[in-house]
């Protein structure tokens, strides 16, 4: 069975699909033969992405930071197609504010945009996956969820650390009884999208940073994860080693033992 055949005919839901990584992923998966359900708040932008994806795309306007909206998406997709094979939690938002200046609202917004939206997706699609005995959730995280090297992104970094942890915990819980339900994490670094410009409190354009990736590069990795179902993937060569090196440099005082 070829990689394309393994994607062909799958029903894949993608949140945050109106631009950036989500849009590029939708286009890539649709070109591979999958049916893509595109979920986002921006109706006009979503329609443009759907048009580029062609007849295999079905746009759904919804705010995935609201549980009832996610529940309706699941119901609508099952009503139309009868099943969901892959659910990609890609919706998210950044922030530009150092930790000493964070407000309650800042923290709440980062959790709502980056954690609870993904948690709603996992929880609402899970009964269907359990009933079928199979399914795949892909949560799009960030290198900032591994290494807190950007103080101005403090609350976003914390939210992505939370997302990583809840994904691993969900995987362990569910696979104890349903081994064919997978929960994967994909961790990009800098991606050349409007992420920076759309951050809470503004921020620099992500395209101004060096050594970034195009959304299509990240989409290619996500498409590979759809096929491989690997649990933990980075989108750049050497990223895993970078994370390991970061924590190795923290070290341990040999005179301090638990």
Could you please describe the fold and organization of this structure?
With 258 residues, this protein is an alpha/beta fold. The protein has a single domain (3-250), classed as Rossmann fold (3-Layer(aba) Sandwich). Helix content is 47%, strand content 14%. It has eight helices and seven strands, in the order αβαβαβαβαβαβαβα. It has helices spanning 3-7, 20-31, 43-53, 67-81, 104-132, 154-175, 215-228, 239-250, and strands at residues 11-15, 35-40, 57-61, 86-89, 135-140, 181-187, 232-234. Strands 3-2-1-4-5-6-7 form a seven-stranded parallel beta sheet, with helices on both faces. Helix 2 links the parallel strand 1 (11-15) and strand 2. Helix 2 packs across helix 7 (215-228).
Task: Please describe the topology of this protein.
Blueprint: H1 3-7, E1 11-15, H2 20-31, E2 35-40, H3 43-53, E3 57-61, H4 67-81, E4 86-89, H5 104-132, E5 135-140, H6 154-175, E6 181-187, H7 215-228, E7 232-234, H8 239-250
Terminal residue distance: 51 Å
The assigned structural class equals: alpha/beta
The CATH C-level class name? Alpha Beta
**Count the strands?**
7
Largest sheet: 7 strands, parallel
**What fraction strand?**
5-15%
| CATH homologous superfamily (4th level) name | NAD(P)-binding Rossmann-like Domain
H and E string:
HEHEHEHEHEHEHEH
CATH topology: Rossmann fold
């Amino acid at each position: 069975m070829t990689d394309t055949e393994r994607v062909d005919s799958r029903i894949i839901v993608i949140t945050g699909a109106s631009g950036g990584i989500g849009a590029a992923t939708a286009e890539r998966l649709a070109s591979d033969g999958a049916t893509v359900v595109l979920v986002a708040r921006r109706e006009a932008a979503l329609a443009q992405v759907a048009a580029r994806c062609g007849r295999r795309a079905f746009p759904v306007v919804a705010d995935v930071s609201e549980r009832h909206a996610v529940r309706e998406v699941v119901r609508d997709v099952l009503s139309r197609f009868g099943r969901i094979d892959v659910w990609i939690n890609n919706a998210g938002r950044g922030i530009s504010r150092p930790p000493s200046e964070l407000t309650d609202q800042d923290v709440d917004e980062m959790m709502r945009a980056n954690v609870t939206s993904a948690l709603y997706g996992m929880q609402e699609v899970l009964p269907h996956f359990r009933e079928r005995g199979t399914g795949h959730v892909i949560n799009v995280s960030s290198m900032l969820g591994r290494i807190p090297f950007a103080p101005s992104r403090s609350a976003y970094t914390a939210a992505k650390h939370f997302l990583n942890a809840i994904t691993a915990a969900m995987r362990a819980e569910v696979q104890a009884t349903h081994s064919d339900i997978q929960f994967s994490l994909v961790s990009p670094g800098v991606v050349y999208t409007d992420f920076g410009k759309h951050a809470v409190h503004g921020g620099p354009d992500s395209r101004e940073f060096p050594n970034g990736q195009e959304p299509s590069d990240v989409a290619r990795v996500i498409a590979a994860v759809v096929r491989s179902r690997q649990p933990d993937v980075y989108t750049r060569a050497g990223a895993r080693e970078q994370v390991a090196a970061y924590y190795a440099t923290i070290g341990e005082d040999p005179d301090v033992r638990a």
